[in-house]
Structures are given as structure tokens and as C-alpha cells.
Design brief:
Elements (H helix, E strand, L loop, with lengths): L4 E5 L2 H11 L3 E5 L5 E2 L7 E2 L5 E2 L2 E2 L4 H11 L4 E4 L5 H15 L8 E4 L7 H8 L7 H28 L10 H17 L4 E10 L5 E9 L2 E2 L8 H13 L2 E13 L7 H12 L3 H13 L1 E3 L2 E3 L14 H15 L43 H17 L4 E12 L4 E12 L32 E13 L8 H11 L7 H10 L3 E4 L2 E4 L1 H13 L6 H15 L5 H17 L6 H16 L20 E6 L2 E6 L8 E2 L6 H8 L3 E5 L6 E7 L2 E6 L9 E4 L11 H8 L3 E5 L6 E7 L2 E6 L2 E4 L11 H8 L12 E5 L6 E7 L2 E6 L2 E4 L11 H13 L8 H13 L7 H7 L1 H4 L2
Parallel strand pairs: 1-2, 1-7, 7-8
Antiparallel strand pairs: 3-6, 4-5, 9-10, 9-17, 10-11, 10-16, 12-15, 12-17, 13-14, 15-16, 18-19, 20-21, 21-22, 23-24, 24-25, 25-26, 27-28, 28-29, 29-30, 31-32, 32-33, 33-34
Length: 878
């Protein structure tokens, strides 16, 4: 029976924890996240009706809403206890709106409660101080949701029509993609610059050695490029080798390093990436579990505070506890004289919540390994250490700089060192760096005791060549950091943004660095060419500021939407008459330096390697972009949309290679290289017909192919002979998986040392003798005839579990249905559903269905952006 009071939270884990704290008189139910959303179709947000919005429950939400509604009918008070941010406020608002529409609940007593940590004291305190739903926070959510919908469902169809092969655009996603693409363009356009440095090893009177670097030459301070080439470096080295040296000066100073602020969402993602190797999504999933509650010694308790925040403040009781634990654990010397207070320097920081910290700092990570899995423990330890360190005393370092000069002062070298005099917060925590080689103060490098005027003996001199390096590609940590600094998006959105970019195949994560895919570069170039304002960093950040103003009650949310939509709709309308040929021309010019970089030999990188007279350029087809020749259809040279390296370019320039003419047809035979390897081709194809081609078998070097071998390959498959037993013809050919023999319905792949062009009857019969007919699977059960054609439906055991089969249609049994329980009617229903989706033989059917849907729907809507959204609603949602 439901309790007198009903508490609604987002997740079952959170519900379980809170239920233990509240005890009798309360029923705690989970909404399982958002209970409704904008339908993924045209018209869900209607600007012409003052931005009216339609909402509908998700397929999985109905049963949860029904359970909540049933419990609400007998509840005295309904407490909405979702997360303390805009999303949490929105979930509570949605639940309240749905329940108010139910019979008997219109006048129900709704109360909003929030807590920053799921501990008993925090929950009970929140329940004692309820409030109404914050309408300004809900308005900010509505504005953000409407903006994202209008951009995604209006701009994405423009992409589909004008840039085939692209998938979607998003208000924040597209700006993040631009960051990755622009960084890649910087790297590609980077020209390395040579410079040299010189280090020398000196020995003191007591035999100690230290290393110094050349800093001054002939009274001139050397900058980074002071020694630009080998000649100048060798000349400087000779000067050092010829001189006698003494200590010119010794500078010593004491510096203090202060600890870093406690974690926000973005800094947690950055550090977890650097130190633990976690992706942003993995970090947030793990933190969510720590926040919602973990069983520790028979008690379910939330171990950290709310993990979606850009605030760096700590509650006074947390600071007091941290100082207490620091003194008990490390001693009073590690406790600063006064508590540390932090303020965010991040653009647009809301400072709405505390920083991320353990709910109880006395709960040391060493006590928790048996209660947490490995990822949870490592993340908790990271948060605990960072929180402790932020309230510890500063580290004190002694920095020393020693200048060593030649007798006439014309050559000066400097040695630096830094010694930790008091470790302070470094005893617990030091922030990671994207480049581990970075050492901001040379901590740990000691110098021998020397005094001004001390003679030192030069030992070795080492000139070293360097080249300037391009900026590094973004890691997850550095991309999140940059987005935060620019004010793009919000902490709760970073993980999903990075995931969407990868899911759409706009970027790939390789060796923990983001590389833009060519598809992503096309989309970015298109948006910058035709919708540049909406992918500008300042524009996106200013929009975030307006959303903050909405949540603060300083501006009306519909005013923001009206201002945005007026300009955005005009930009969309401006692309109506834009032709694909114009898009191709623009993108070809924009991306030309990327796809056709200059060649070292000065030759034209756009020259067609096939016809020699054509110009290579960007082409768009139904399934995406590719590189093609301007002489199409006379020249049909194509290559995938990718940058080829110089070796590949030289190799491509050597093909096609003429081998001679076919004596039967008189057509030229050529050897060519395609995206999938080498092949031979007969003629060029006439009247749009595809010319005859044959791939080279593995093991046949291209240089060994002459006219005779090419004609033999083009003649495949060939008859080897008649099998002596079956009297059926044996043929040899090259298929999708390489050279093979065919005898009746049986196939046999050829070994590496068998030549498909010369294999004879004896060897063919020997190989085919090993081929056995595939055994026919015996059905586990016979269910009966299908009502449509009376063909028997059987149950079989498959590799991935039992399935029913009718003709060529197969359908897996649900896990809840046993083999001996499935009925004929259930089987017919499963098979009909599979057939309706295009289900046939296992393997290709499941992938083929979405392609058919896309092909039919996309061209059907030509009336404009709003209608096109319906055709691809599922894609645009992302």
C-alpha cells in the first residue's frame, strides 16, 4: 500500500537510498529520468503560435507514470525530489503537469525539495523546507529545449538536401565540431621552423656536476630562434669549448604554490581523463553511482555531492571537517591559518551549487575498496584527494638560478633548479597535465652549492636541433576545458556532446585525441559558409548567458526565442534557392587545401591521374562526398574523400598503366589502383556502361602483371574441367573473399600457393574432396503451418539463441519465452513483425531496412525545412 506521502526522484538507485532515510509514511518512486519530451516530428515547437510546444511521454515512461499516478491518488503530499539543477527542475515540472491532468489529482499538494548530497541529514533537512517549483528555471529549460529543437529540426534537413551524406547539426554540437576542425586545419597549415639549443655540463671544485643552457651570446639575449641553424649552433658551441668559465651570479628565491580549487563537472572530467584514462561519459556514469548511493557496511549512502555543477564553493561544515581531518591525518602544519575560499573564473559560471566533494571527508578511500568497484574507487579517491588538497597549506619551493659566464662575459649559460622545502598540499595531490613533460617549476632538480666567482670546469657541450611543433589535437580533457572557457554549453552537456560527435562519425578518438573525419569537415565548412553566425563561439556563449538571465528572472524566455528565430529563420530561407552545384563549388574552394595539399615536386595536386587532362574536385552523391574528375562521364576516376600521403600520390600518378590492346575487341587493357587495391580494366566503358574489371589476387605483384595475365584475369571465371565422379563442371574465379573453386553448389577457397589462372583438374579435385555439404539443422520443435501459405514454422537453435523460421524469415525468441512455451500464434506474430522490418536471412536484413526508409522519405519532402524534418525525425533528434 502506498504511504501517506509520495516522493518522486529520477532513478531507482536514488529512490532506494532515500527510502531508507525516510522510513514509514513515505513511498519513494522513480520517474526513470525525463517522463516526456518533444515528439521528434515537425511542429513540436511552433514559432507562429508564440512558440507553443507539444509534449508526449516516451514509450518506456508510460508504465512509470502509471505507477506514480496510482500512488499519487492516495498520497497526502507529493514531494518532487529530482536533482537540484535545471534538468531536475524540468523533470519535476513535467511530472507535476502530467499528474495534474489525471482525474482526481488537479488539486493535489505538490512540494519541491532539493538536496546537494544524498545523506540522511541533507534529505531530512530538505524535506523539512519544501518550496514551489522554480518557474524561472523551468523557463530556462523550455528555452534551451526549444532552441535545440529549432536548430536541429530546421538546420538538419537543410544539410540533408544540400549536403548529402551528412547526418545532423546541433546548436552546441556544431560549435564543438568547429573547434576540432579548426585545430586540425592549424596542424595541417603548420610549417615547422628549425632552431637549436646548446647545453653544457660543468663541474664544481668538489666534483659535483650540473647542466646549464646557453642564454646570452656577445651581450645579446638569445630568444627561441637565436640559433636558427646548425652553422650558428656549431659556432656558438665552439665559443663555449674555447672559453673558461666561472659563476657570474646566483639568484635564490622562495615561491609558494597554492592548491587548485575543488572539482567542478568539467575539471573532474579533465582530471579523470588525464589521471584515470576515463572518457567524459564514463566519468559521469561513475560519479552518478557515487552520488546516488552505495552500500557501505549495510548502509546505503551517497558518497559525493551532486556532480553537475560549475560552482567551486564548499559548504562551511565541509570546510570545517576538511581542516579537522587534515590536522588529524597530516599534522597542524598542513592546516592554513584561515579557510580557503574559491571563486570561479569560468565564463558564464552559474555558481548554483557546491563543488563536487565527498559527503563525509572522514570516509578515507582506503576504507572503501571492498564496497566499490575499481572505477568507483579510483574516482572517489580522486575527488577525496582534490577536496582535501584545496584546504591544505601551500607548498613552499626554493628556486635557484645560476649564471655561468666566460671570462670576457661574451658567453652566458644558465642552470635552474627547484627544491620542495615544504610539500603542503603536494603531499596529497598534484594536478595532471595534458603534456606530462611540462614542468612548470622544475621541482626536484637540485643544483650544487656554488658562490659568485667560483671557477667551474666545462665538461661536455651538446648542440641540439629542434623544430617547432604544431598545436596538439584536442583530448577529451582539453576540449572540455576549451568549451568551458569559451562558455559553450554547460557542464551537464559536455559528455553527451562529445559522444554525439563520435556517434555521428564526425570525429574519431584515436590515441585519446580527437581527429575530425572528412564528413565532419564538410559539415563544418558548410555551416561556416552559409550559417556562420550560428557556429561562432561568442554567439553561442552569449546565448548561454541569455539562458542564465532567464533562470535568474532577468529576461522573458519567449523574448529570447523570438529574437533568435527571426534571424535564424531568415538564414534558413536564404538557402532555399541554393543549388548543390553551388554548395560543391563553395566546399571545393574551402576544403581544397585540405584534400589537395601542395606536392613537394610542385606538380598539380588536382591533376587527374587517369585521364591526365581532368581536374580533381569535390563531388556529392546520394550517400555522401567523394573525389572525382571534371571530365566525367568520359573519365570515371574516383577516390574516397580522404587526403592521400605523398607516397600514395606518387603511386597513384603511376596508374592507370597501359598494358596493350585486347586482340579480340581491340579495346585498351590497363592496370589501375582503386580504393580496395589493384585491378585490371578493359576499355573505358561506352554510353555510360561500366567497363569490365578484375581484381588482382593476393600474392600477385602489380609489377608482374602483363597483357597476357591481365586478359586471363578478365576472362575469369574459367572452366577447369569436368569432375570425374559428378560430371559437373569445375570453375575457378575470384570473388569477394579471394580466389575460389566452384563445383555445383559447393565453393572452396584457394590456398596462397594455388594460382587461380593455372590450377589444374587433379589439384582441383583434391581440394574439392575436402568440401562437405553443410549439414541441415534439425528443428527443436515443429509448431505448425503458417496461416498464409501453410508452410511449416519450426523452432531452431541458433548461434545467438533459439529462433523461429518460416521460409527465409527468421525471428529470435524473446528471452522471456522458453522454447517449449512458444505457441504458433506467438511465432506468427514474431515472424510477421520481422518480415515487416525487411527481415530475411540473418545478417543483411537488419541493416537494409533503415536505408530503404531513408531513401523513400527524404526526397518526398521538398516544401522546405519544416516538412523535411518529419522525414528524418529520428536522426535530427540527436
Amino acid at each position: 500500500m502506498p504511504g501517506e506521502n509520495l516522493v518522486i526522484v529520477e532513478s531507482p538507485a536514488k529512490a532506494k537510498t532515500i527510502n531508507k532515510y525516510l522510513g514509514g509514511g513515505f513511498t519513494v518512486l522513480a520517474s526513470y529520468g525525463h517522463v516526456r519530451d518533444l515528439p521528434p516530428k515537425d511542429g513540436s515547437v511552433r514559432p507562429d503560435e508564440d512558440f507553443a510546444m507539444d509534449w508526449e511521454p516516451g514509450d518506456r515512461s508510460k508504465k512509470h507514470i502509471d505507477a506514480i499516478a496510482k500512488a499519487a491518488k492516495d498520497a497526502g503530499t507529493i514531494y518532487l525530489a529530482t536533482d537540484p539543477d535545471r534538468e531536475g527542475e524540468a523533470i519535476s515540472w513535467h511530472v507535476q503537469e502530467i499528474l495534474k491532468g489525471k482525474r482526481g489529482l488537479a488539486k493535489a499538494d505538490f512540494q519541491r525539495v532539493t538536496f546537494n548530497e544524498i545523506t540522511k541529514s541533507a534529505v531530512l533537512e530538505a524535506m523539512a523546507s519544501p518550496r514551489d517549483i522554480n518557474r524561472e528555471m523551468v523557463d530556462a529549460y523550455l528555452a534551451r529545449r526549444a532552441l535545440d529543437y529549432l536548430v536541429g529540426f530546421t538546420l538538419s534537413p537543410v544539410l540533408w538536401r544540400k549536403l548529402p551524406g551528412s547526418k545532423s547539426a546541433g546548436r552546441v554540437q556544431s560549435v564543438a565540431l568547429r573547434l576540432v576542425c579548426e585545430r586540425e586545419a592549424e596542424i595541417e597549415g603548420f610549417k615547422p621552423r628549425e632552431f637549436w639549443s646548446i647545453e653544457a655540463v660543468f663541474r664544481t671544485a668538489d666534483g659535483s656536476e650540473f647542466t646549464a643552457r646557453l642564454t646570452h651570446l656577445d651581450g645579446r639575449k638569445l630568444d627561441k630562434f637565436g640559433l636558427p641553424d646548425e652553422a650558428s649552433a656549431k659556432a656558438a658551441a665552439a665559443r663555449i669549448e674555447a672559453g673558461t668559465f666561472a659563476v657570474q651570479s646566483v639568484e635564490s628565491k622562495q615561491v609558494r604554490r597554492n592548491p587548485y580549487p575543488p572539482f567542478t563537472t568539467s575539471t573532474l572530467q579533465q582530471e579523470a581523463s588525464r589521471k584515470l584514462g576515463f572518457g567524459a561519459s564514463q566519468t559521469m556514469r561513475t560519479a552518478q553511482k557515487l552520488y546516488e548511493g552505495v552500500d557501505v557496511g549495510g548502509e546505503t549512502v551517497g558518497l559525493i555531492t551532486y556532480m553537475r555543477t560549475d560552482g567551486v564553493t564548499l559548504a562551511q561544515e565541509a570546510i570545517a571537517q576538511a581542516r579537522r581531518v587534515i590536522g588529524q591525518t597530516f599534522g597542524d602544519a598542513y592546516v592554513p591559518g584561515s579557510p580557503r575560499v574559491y571563486k570561479s573564473k569560468v565564463k558564464n559560471a552559474q555558481e548554483a551549487h557546491e563543488a563536487i566533494r565527498p559527503t563525509d571527508l572522514s570516509r578515507h578511500p582506503d576504507k572503501l575498496p571492498r564496497h566499490l568497484d575499481r572505477d568507483q574507487h579510483r574516482l572517489y579517491e580522486l575527488i577525496w584527494k582534490r577536496t582535501m588538497a584545496c584546504q591544505m597549506e601551500s607548498a613552499v619551493l626554493d628556486q635557484v638560478a645560476v649564471d655561468v659566464a666566460a671570462g670576457d662575459g661574451s658567453v652566458v649559460l644558465r642552470a635552474t633548479g627547484s627544491i620542495v622545502k615544504f610539500d603542503g598540499f603536494l603531499k596529497v595531490y598534484e594536478e595532471g597535465r595534458d603534456d606530462p613533460a611540462d614542468d612548470e617549476d622544475g621541482a626536484g632538480k637540485r643544483l650544487p652549492p656554488v658562490g659568485k666567482g667560483d671557477a667551474v670546469d666545462r665538461r661536455t657541450v651538446k648542440p641540439e636541433q629542434h623544430f617547432t611543433q604544431p598545436p596538439p589535437r584536442y583530448s577529451e580533457a582539453s576540449l572540455v576545458k576549451t568549451m568551458e572557457e569559451l562558455g559553450i554549453g554547460r557542464p551537464s552537456t559536455y559528455a553527451s556532446i562529445l559522444q554525439v560527435l563520435q556517434d555521428r562519425e564526425y570525429v574519431r578518438l584515436e590515441k585519446k585525441r580527437f581527429h575530425p573525419e572528412d564528413r565532419g569537415r564538410l559539415v563544418t565548412a558548410f555551416l561556416q559558409s552559409y550559417f556562420n553566425r550560428y557556429v561562432e563561439y561568442d554567439f553561442t556563449a552569449n546565448l548561454e548567458e541569455q539562458l542564465d538571465d532567464i533562470s535568474g528572472g532577468r529576461i522573458d524566455w519567449k523574448t529570447v526565442l523570438r529574437d533568435f528565430w527571426q534571424a535564424f529563420h531568415a538564414a534558413i530561407e536564404g538557402t532555399k534557392d541554393l543549388t548543390i552545384s553551388q554548395v560543391i563549388e563553395t566546399l571545393d574552394e574551402e576544403l581544397g587545401p585540405h584534400f589537395f595539399p601542395p606536392r613537394p615536386d610542385g606538380s598539380n595536386p588536382r591533376a587527374c591521374p587517369s585521364c591526365q587532362s581532368g581536374r580533381l574536385g569535390l563531388k556529392l552523391a546520394r550517400n555522401g562526398a567523394f573525389i572525382g574528375c571534371s571530365n566525367y562521364p568520359e573519365c570515371r576516376f574516383t577516390r574516397p574523400l580522404e587526403v592521400i600521403d605523398e607516397n600514395a600520390a606518387e603511386e597513384a600518378a603511376a596508374y592507370p598503366r597501359a598494358l596493350g590492346d585486347d586482340p579480340e575487341t581491340g579495346l585498351p587493357v590497363s592496370l589501375r589502383k582503386g580504393p580496395y587495391g589493384f585491378y585490371v580494366q578493359l576499355g573505358e566503358g561506352e554510353n555510360g556502361a561500366k567497363p569490365k574489371r578484375a581484381s588482382l589476387p593476393k600474392g600477385l605483384p602489380p609489377d608482374d602483371v602483363d597483357l597476357e595475365k591481365a586478359l586471363a584475369l578478365l576472362a575469369l571465371p574459367r572452366d577447369v574441367g569436368t569432375h570425374p565422379e559428378t560430371k559437373e563442371t569445375i570453375t575457378a574465379g575470384i570473388g569477394r573473399y579471394g580466389p575460389y573453386l566452384k563445383h555445383g553448389g559447393a565453393y572452396k577457397s584457394l590456398a596462397a600457393d594455388d594460382d587461380v589462372l593455372t590450377i589444374g583438374m587433379n589439384r582441383a579435385v583434391e581440394l574439392l574432396a575436402d568440401v562437405r555439404q553443410r549439414p541441415v539443422a534439425e528443428p527443436l520443435r515443429e509448431l505448425g503451418p503458417h496461416p498464409k501459405d501453410q508452410e511449416t514454422i519450426n523452432v531452431f537453435k541458433g548461434r545467438y539463441g533459439p529462433y523461429v523460421r518460416h521460409g527465409k524469415v527468421m525471428a529470435s525468441l524473446p528471452k522471456s519465452v522458453e522454447v517449449d512455451q512458444i505457441t504458433l500464434d506467438q511465432a506468427v506474430e514474431l515472424l510477421d513483425a520481422k518480415a515487416a522490418k525487411g527481415g530475411g536471412k540473418k545478417g543483411g536484413a537488419r541493416k537494409a531496412a533503415p536505408k530503404k526508409t531513408t531513401a523513400k522519405k527524404a526526397p518526398a519532402k521538398k516544401a522546405g525545412a519544416s516538412k523535411a524534418t518529419t522525414a528524418k525525425a529520428g536522426t535530427a533528434k540527436a
